[in-house]
Known about the structure:
By secondary structure, this protein is of the alpha+beta class.
Amino acid sequence: MTQDPLPPTITLNATDWQHFLDSLYERDDRLERRAPDTVVAPDEEVDAYTLSAHVEALRSGEVDGDVWGTLEDIEETAGDEEEAWTKITAFYRSRGCVLVQVLDQEEPEEWLLSEALARRLGLQSMRGSGEQEG
């Protein structure tokens, strides 16, 4: 039996990450990506905090992703935060989630999104030069 390959890791630089966030909007609790030059209402604009409500897990210097709470949710234990994040990442990636890593940050910036959400938001088309396969 062959194991399915893990989804790719998408690596973005800080500028591309910010452009990605700036291109999102939320309407009726649904996150979408707007076409260039499309204007949305101020209450539909998305920042990292808004995005965090739509992802499976995250480790971020800007948004508290509650790594320990997430680890508990998946019924795992770890000795430190790095080990905890490694287990969280393995758990969600084995279930088809896409890992987005943002380079050039003082603290780790990593987000786990369902493959369907990543596809709908066009993340696969933003694959950076540091992209890694499964």
